[in-house]
Structure formats: structure tokens, C-alpha cells
Write a structure and sequence with these properties.
Dihydrodipicolinate Reductase, domain 2; eight-stranded mixed sheet; 24% strand; six-stranded parallel sheet; alpha/beta; Rossmann fold; 348 residues
Length: 348
Amino acid sequence: MNQNSLLFRSPIRVGVVGLGRAGVQIHIEALRKHSDFYVTAVADPLESRRKEQATLLGASAFASLDELVTSALCDVVVIATPSRDHYSDACKVLEAGIHCVLEKPMATNAREARELVARSKAKGLHLFVHHHYAYEGETLFLQEIIHSGRIGAVFHIDVFWTGFSRRWDWQTLQKNGGGQLLNTCPHVLTLLLTLLGGDATLESGRARLIKDAGDTEDDVRMFLRGCNGITASVAVSSVCALPMPRLTLHGSCGTLQENFTTATIRSFDPCAVRALKVIDVAAPVDGSLTETLPWKEEQVPVKPTSQGGTFYDNIAATLLQGASFRVDPGQAARIIEILEAIASQSRA
């Protein structure tokens, strides 16, 4: 079926551009396991890489994206090139009239991100930005906890996406789109925007270089206010040598703290305690203004009650059945806007 038709037939023909870690270990591995996709073409400037994958996949090999998009072999093209090239490469795919899967960050600045969204809409094409944290069990689990009222009304989230490691590779350079803002923060914001109602306002942000080589940041701090009223304090840093709780939900009747696989929940049933009434008199000395709450503490696995499918499940459903894609490209561009605002505040 022609790529400009409304729906496709399975398997969907896919080209992958950029055969490094992301292109091979993230995208090709997922595509090989999915019956609705067939990798028909690969492209990379390194001959050894493209020959290896072409042989493994039974695909055609090209030295450049320009050759691949004119081959008429692909319904969708995956862009897994270095961050600095995402915008220009995605433009080429969209201009060729082909749907685009774009590795994060979708661009290195907000203007380019918004332009990609506008181009895809004008062409009537899908722009699938790889924000896979929207599909992770951790995100779905936390979303369920908030909606369930299990710890009461959630009013604040603390996030520590931290560790300690020193880097001196290409991702420590601004010219390559390196640093925590463009590489790690998109994951964190994908999770957070889901929990904050779909959008958030940046109230303050700071990005700093502490110990890496290069010229870009290794420590990011931000404070967000979600459109649902929940606030979030976030640390994304490779300069934290002690373990911190990965994520904490603060609710009116308890707290949840989780570290990837296990969550500890300490809460009480609001129906099991008396209603509070203000006593506007001198404080008594008999301790009658204290109470013992019926706390319940438990450890639970970080698993949602229902699975939402994978990133490529969602793409298949969109192209084959006309389903909605979970992360709208406008939201992906909004993430770049927030990151750009943090960089601007840091310079100021």
C-alpha cells in the first residue's frame, strides 16, 4: 500500500537510518520481534555496519539517508542518527512523503521541534517521536496510583534520576546535542507530563556542568507545576554518589516511594479517622490535639494492572487500524520547549 494511503497492510516496510546503539539495539531489535514490521532497508555511512545489518535482515543497504528515501522501499523511516542531525534528517523523510519514527530528542531547539510538527501536519504524515517512557510499566503504575486515590489526593512528586559516572564521549559536547537536558531529561519529562495531566509550567530550572569533559551539563534541577495542579521537583544528575529514592508521590493520606521494581506505600484510610475541626482557643496541655493515625505500610511490585502495549505496538495500531498515537508530536515539542527554558534560565 502506498505510504500516503490512510491505512497500511501488515507487514509495514521500515527503513532504519543510523546503525549505532539506538538504531540496532533499540529499534531494529524491537522491529525484528514484531510481526507487523519488516525492515527492508538500512543506511549508515560506515560500510561495515550497513553490510552487517543488511545481511542479517535481508535488507537493502545504503550509504546515506538521501539514497534510502528515494528507493521506494519504505513506508516508514526510523531516524536513529546523532542528536544534532535529527531535525534535518526528519525533514528529508517528511519531504519525501514518508512517515517518520524519530529518536529523541526530536530536535535540539524548540523552533526546529515546532517546525517538524507543522511539516508533518502539512504533509498529512505521522511523526512518531520515540518517547518510550509513556509505555513503561512504571509510568502506567504511577498513573493508576494517582487516579485510584490510594494515598489520597497527590499534590507533589519528587524525582531523583541520579547516579555517579564520569563521561568524556561525544555526548559531552553541545555541538553534538549532548548533555543531560537533551538525552536524559526527555525520558523524565515523558513520565512526568503523563502524571502532571499532559502539560506543565516550568517555574524554575538550572543546568550545570560539574565534572564531565566537554562543555555541556551533567546536573539538571527543575521545579514544575502540572496542569492538574500537582507540582514536581526533579533532579537529573550523574553527580550523585549515594542512592536516592527514584520517585516519591506525596498524597493527602500517605506517601509512595519507588525504585524501579518495588514501591513502598504508607497510607491510612480517611474514613477510619475523625474529621478535623479547628479549635480556635488556647492550646490545651493534656495532649488532646495529638492523634495516632491507623497507618498501613506495604510493599508492592511496580506493575500496572493492565498493560498498555509497546511503542511499536502503538505505531502498528496507528498505521493499520487508525488508532491514536499516545505521545502527540506536539507534546514531544513541548518537552523541547521546557528544556530550552531551563537552558535559558541557566544562562541568565
